[in-house]
């Protein structure tokens, strides 16, 4: 196969990064975290809205890609909102649901109990206090077990 | 799917960088997600010049405005982030077609893994990611000096991150020509 190599010019960004002035990594991160912290309560509101919407999705009859896409979108929105605030267990639970939906069989209906259980788990994770580490771990473990059972090979580490 | 992690080194707290004046574009269909990205960038000294809620809106801007860095969400209604980056690289817009592109994703569907690899982005970050990871990746792409390659329908940065010697026979015509040329040159010098 023909390969054409374009020797790259320096991007303007590469010129800017080393120009005099600027800020240190430590200062930039402190500033960024402070900026983001102002959005943390809004983030929780959005997560709660998405979990409520996920739980309220009607159980589809038969193969329904639209319903699965909606559930996937709600789970993705949870990750979007929770991501910058180190709400890692919420992200892990939502990602687990995304993995399950992504592996949904095309020729038979998706087991909708999976969505219901994940919505309940997300709600529980939202209400558990931060110090309930064991309880949080148990919730996540049960979801991971579900993924392993439904999607063989999913629990194996990526190469 | 994991992002293309593991290629950057952690940044030292005292390391200094300067992105003042960088023209940055963020494309995300979720206004809240877009705002979060913009706030993190603001902390790094990068004011988002173009905030777009769709790829179509971004394309209209890119026709006439040079952009130094693009952050784009993978999953968007209408034109997806993958389709957008593929369009950008093939757009012929100079310098935008070569602009550093970081893709972000809450989750990458299995069916989209090849799109993520082959659309021509410099980097994909999967969520959740901290402000530190985002900064690390931005600094990394700013120093990304991989050449752009055109291979089949791929146009974008060389997808090979490692540059380790291949133990087998060299089959690339360009490399074979270069080796032959070097051999001839050395022979001529020795004469």
Ordered list of secondary-structure elements with their pairings:
The complex is a heterodimer of chains A (159) and B (191).
Chain A: E1 3-6, H1 12-17, E2 23-24, H2 25-37, H3 40-55, H4 65-82, H5 88-102, H6 113-127, H7 133-150
Helix pairs in contact in A: 3-4, 3-6, 4-5, 5-6, 5-7, 6-7
Chain B: E1 16-17, E2 24-27, H1 31-43, E3 48-52, H2 55-62, E4 69-73, H3 81-90, E5 101-105, H4 113-118, E6 123-126, H5 131-142, E7 148-151, E8 154-157, H6 173-190
Parallel strand pairs in B: 2-3, 2-4, 4-5, 5-6
Antiparallel strand pairs in B: 7-8
What does this structure look like?
The complex is a heterodimer of chains A (159) and B (191). Chain A is mainly alpha-helical. Chain A has a domain at 40-150: Four Helix Bundle (Hemerythrin (Met), subunit A) (Up-down Bundle). Chain A contains 7 helices and 2 strands; from the N terminus they run E-H-E-H-H-H-H-H-H. Chain A has helices spanning 12-17, 25-37, 40-55, 65-82, 88-102, 113-127, 133-150; strands at 3-6, 23-24. Chain A starts with a strand and ends in a 9-residue tail after the last helix. In chain A, 33% of the residues are buried. With 191 residues, chain B is an alpha/beta fold. Chain B has one domain: Rossmann fold (3-Layer(aba) Sandwich). In chain B, 35% of the residues lie in helices and 17% in strands. Chain B contains 6 helices and 8 strands; from the N terminus they run E-E-H-E-H-E-H-E-H-E-H-E-E-H. Chain B has helices at 31-43, 55-62, 81-90, 113-118, 131-142, 173-190, and strands spanning 16-17, 24-27, 48-52, 69-73, 101-105, 123-126, 148-151, 154-157. Chain B has a 5-stranded parallel sheet, with helices on both faces. In chain B, strands 7-8 form a two-stranded antiparallel sheet. In chain B, helix 1 (31-43) links the parallel strand 2 (24-27) and strand 3 (48-52). The chains are: A mainly alpha (159), B alpha/beta (191).
